[in-house]
Amino acid sequence: MTVLCVRFQLPPAGETALPGLLGLLEEFTPVVEALPPDGVLADLRGAERYFGRSAVELASVIRVRALALHGVDCVIGAGPGPMLARVALRDARPGVTCAVPEGAVAEFLANRPVAALPGVGTATSRTLCEYGLDTLGRVAAAPLSTLQRLIGARAGRELHEKANGVDRGRVVPNGVSRSLATERPFPLDELDPDRHRRALLSAAGELGARLRALDKVCGALTLTVRYADRTATTRTRTLREPTAHSAALTRTTYAMYEALGLQRARVRALVLRAESLAPAEQASHQLTFDPVDEKVRRVEEAADRVRAKFGPGAVIPGALAA
What we know:
Elements: E1 3-8, H1 18-26, E2 32-35, E3 39-43, H2 45-51, H3 55-70, E4 74-79, H4 82-89, E5 98-99, H5 105-110, H6 122-130, H7 136-141, H8 144-151, H9 153-163, E6 180-190, H10 193-213, E7 216-227, E8 232-243, H11 246-260, E9 267-279, H12 291-310
Parallel strand pairs: 4-5
Antiparallel strand pairs: 1-3, 1-4, 2-3, 6-9, 7-8, 7-9
Helix pairs in contact: 1-3, 8-9, 10-11
């Protein structure tokens, strides 16, 4: 095993602990990639040689240190590459690292649903299932030309390779400073889509207000849906133009949520992250000549002035994005 995919079980509003947890992993390897809001990829090729231990053994040390130093438990998947490590993470449990068996990658993947592969969304999964390609084993056995006709030339080729265990990904070191995030946990596992949407409206409004207070704009949004069974789904979408406008952030957030096609999903928490932050003065705004849009922006500016004078509680986050 070479790569670990770690998901820390952070408490509500505990994302501020992620930089410290990244530092813990960097004691083992400098090749660490943050997967906000609570995940990390770590390439341990050098660490295995240096410490004389396997990645699975090092995973146990990382788990103990995270508990001892930060009070945070974690689940860990291990594999020869980042894609396989992320797939393995789906079967991991606290205290037990799930590792892809060496020399048996195809068997490990064969009975898993196509949606288990990172990057395979609801629409692609639905298309493949309509043609009986509902498991990775069936996708791997399908002719490449068939997959390319169904989902496109490039996507079909990449899916065929991944289903056959070919992992061309790599861990790219990064940080978490170029983003902002907010979490909306539910007191009980929530089934109601209307309550999901209200939580997303509030989260998008809060992010917009925070971005404007910092004179920043974001170029992408990442939505993470955490479920009652401790699994999670994460989707990222690039914005048409960098913005801090709450209404634009809300539209994109709703679009990502609708694309997931959740059916009676028991949602434990929703996390929204603004990615690719940049100074607002460097951003351009496409004029729409829409009087409603301009009015909303003026109201937004007035609300920001109220917040600056009386505090964040003066205006309910997200209320103006409706």
